[in-house]
Design brief:
0% strand
């Protein structure tokens, strides 16, 4: 027969079982469980500290991102204002340059037209003089010696004299 099943040993077995269980329970509740609870509490505090630090860093990062976005937006607005200012200055400069160039071109055109008119008058006068000389020579060769240069000149310019 097995000693565990012997009824005469039940009382001692129960006594030792209760004694061992009580000692283990006291040992666990007094020494081991508080240490485990303390370690778990320390870990919990450390984790909470890390979470708080992470939240703090996260908030700082968000603030930095917000500041960066504000600065970026401000810089974009400033750049747009600067571009518009430069665009207006460039447009004004181009307008002034175009007006200046137009004025210079109009002056040159007027000067050239004046010079062309002057050259045209000079050329026409030379042609008239050559025509008068040629007419005088033709009249002389035809034998009309009574016609003078002055007569040819008067006939050629009779519209000017009468007008």
């Amino acid at each position: 027969m097995l000693p565990q099943l012997d009824l005469s040993t039940y009382v001692t077995q129960i006594f030792w079982m209760l004694l061992c269980f009580s000692l283990l329970w006291i040992l666990m509740s007094v020494f081991i469980t508080p240490k485990i609870a303390d370690v778990m509490e320390q870990r919990k505090r450390k984790i909470n500290e890390y979470i708080q630090k992470a939240d703090k860093l996260n908030n700082q990062a968000k603030e930095a991102i917000d500041k960066y976005n504000e600065m970026l937006l401000s810089a974009e607005k400033e750049a747009e204002r600067e571009i518009e200012t430069k665009r207006a200055e460039l447009k004004s400069y181009l307008h002034d340059a175009e007006n200046n160039m137009s004025a210079q071109l109009n002056k040159k055109i007027a000067d050239n037209e004046f010079n062309l008119a002057k050259e045209k008058r000079n050329t026409l006068m030379q042609i008239e003089n050559i025509a008068e000389d040629l007419a005088f020579e033709i009249v002389q060769k035809l034998g009309f010696s009574s016609i003078s240069r002055q007569n040819i000149y008067d006939v050629a310019h009779k519209d000017r004299i009468n007008g």
